[in-house]
Amino acid sequence: MKKQIFIVVTGLFFLLSFSSCLWNHHDTSVSLSDSGEEYRMKASYERKKTFKIQEFLDSRLEHNGTSFRNTKTNTRITLDDGTTFYMKSYPGKLKIEFNKTENSEEAYYKIKGICEDIKSLLAENSADR
Prior knowledge:
By secondary structure, the protein is an alpha+beta fold. It contains three helices and five strands, in the order αββαβββα. It has helices at residues 2-23, 50-60, 105-127, and strands at residues 29-34, 38-44, 73-78, 84-90, 93-99. Strands 1-2-5-4-3 form a five-stranded antiparallel beta sheet, with helices on one face. α2 (50-60) packs antiparallel against α3.
């Protein structure tokens, strides 16, 4: 009898301990860094927000008429205006690396603005929970 109680208590302990791992995947994290040659953004967010972020990217980036919706991306992108940057995008994750020496100052401010808008968009959505 004591062995069965011990097994049940141990099982409940592990279940409660690991349940936080299963349910707490709703943290939003966005980091922006701006060095001499490179501007970077890394974002991690709820997977269900991915479509909204992809729609936002479609609305702000002119990319040969192609869409970022429902796609995974891990490539260097050249926009219609000649702006180039690296983007890695998966459900719940987005990374943008922009080389300032390879692009114009106008392109830098465009990408920087988009990244800051994504950060704001994710912050607004986090507050809506």
